[in-house]
């Protein structure tokens, strides 16, 4: 499951858990993006902070792991590169790429989309506020799945921190504490943002 995870929240975790259980997956690999090319307009929190929050959020689940492939690869993150790297690391694995309805709707605009299809089975999951559709996508490579509706976004979590509103129970407890410890998302804390 790729994502910016800025910060990781319970929408990500519930989606991953549901797909893991339904498909009986051995492992769900969370892959925080390096530089997300779709989000160049805003300052994204440093990759190390996003990586560590993802590690904290997933640590208690024996089937959840976190990969550094995207944050260690220089330049913008493209999913075709993510899947190529994961495939090299796990030559015998059957790969699935979990993606929310909003991201699935954008997928045809992703770089290298044609090379991407044979690398994994794409699992599009429901997300409140977005229509889940596989229209125009290759049916052999895409499958849709309903997951418990969690109306949570990282954008909303960041805005809540700015507005001094709670993020408890939207993100895991350790992530709430991590955000507080490093003063993430507070506009006055200039150090934590990358341009
Ligand atoms: P932002 O608001 O910064 O874009 P986000 O909440 O959309 O953050 P991302 O890191 O962009 O989180 O998303 C990573 C992946 O998780 C995407 O495929 C996205 O569609 C999916 N996802 C995010 N939130 C949910 C949710 N609440 N339910 C289902 N899928 C989700
Ligand atoms: Mg998003």
UniProtKB/TrEMBL annotation:
- Occurrences of domain Cytidyltransferase-like (ranges): 1-160
Region forming the signal peptide = none
GO terms assigned for molecular function: ATP binding; nicotinate-nucleotide adenylyltransferase activity
Instruction: Give the matching Pfam families.
Output: CTP_transf_like
Catalyzes what?
Answer: nicotinate beta-D-ribonucleotide + ATP + H(+) = deamido-NAD(+) + diphosphate
| Biological processes per GO annotation | NAD+ biosynthetic process
Q: What is its EC number?
A: 2.7.7.18
Its pathway is: Cofactor biosynthesis; NAD(+) biosynthesis; deamido-NAD(+) from nicotinate D-ribonucleotide: step 1/1
* InterPro entries linked: Cyt_trans-like, NadD/NMNAT, Rossmann-like_a/b/a_fold
Arranged from A to Z, the UniProt key words for this protein are: ATP-binding, NAD, Nucleotide-binding, Nucleotidyltransferase, Pyridine nucleotide biosynthesis, Transferase
Q: What biological function has been recorded for the protein in this entry? A: Catalyzes the reversible adenylation of nicotinate mononucleotide (NaMN) to nicotinic acid adenine dinucleotide (NaAD).
Concerning its family, UniProt says: Belongs to the NadD family.
Q: Which NCBIfam families match?
A: cyt_tran_rel, nicotinate (nicotinamide) nucleotide adenylyltransferase, PRK00071.1-3
Question: Which HAMAP family does the record match to this protein?
Answer: NaMN_adenylyltr (MF_00244)
How is this protein named in the record?
Probable nicotinate-nucleotide adenylyltransferase
Source species: Flexivirga endophytica
Q: Mind giving the lineage of the organism this protein is from?
A: Bacteria, Bacillati, Actinomycetota, Actinomycetes, Micrococcales
């Amino acid at each position: 499951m790729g994502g910016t995870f800025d910060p990781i929240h319970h929408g990500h975790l519930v989606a991953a858990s549901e797909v893991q259980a339904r498909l009986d997956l051995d492992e769900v690999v969370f892959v925080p993006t390096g530089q997300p090319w779709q989000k160049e307009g805003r300052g994204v929190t440093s990759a190390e902070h996003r990586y560590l929050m993802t590690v904290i959020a997933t640590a208690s689940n024996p089937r959840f792991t976190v990969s550094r492939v995207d944050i260690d690869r220089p330049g913008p993150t493209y999913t075709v590169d993510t899947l190529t790297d994961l495939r090299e690391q796990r030559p015998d694995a059957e790969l699935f790429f979990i993606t929310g309805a909003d991201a699935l709707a954008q997928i045809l605009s992703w770089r290298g989309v044609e090379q991407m299809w044979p690398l994994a089975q794409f699992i599009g999951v429901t997300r409140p506020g977005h229509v889940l559709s596989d229209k125009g996508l290759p049916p052999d490579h895409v499958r849709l799945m309903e997951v418990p509706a969690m109306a949570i976004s990282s954008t909303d979590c960041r805005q809540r921190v700015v507005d001094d509103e709670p993020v408890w129970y939207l993100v895991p407890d350790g992530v709430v504490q991590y955000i507080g410890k490093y003063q993430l998302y507070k506009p006055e804390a200039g150090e934590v943002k990358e341009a």
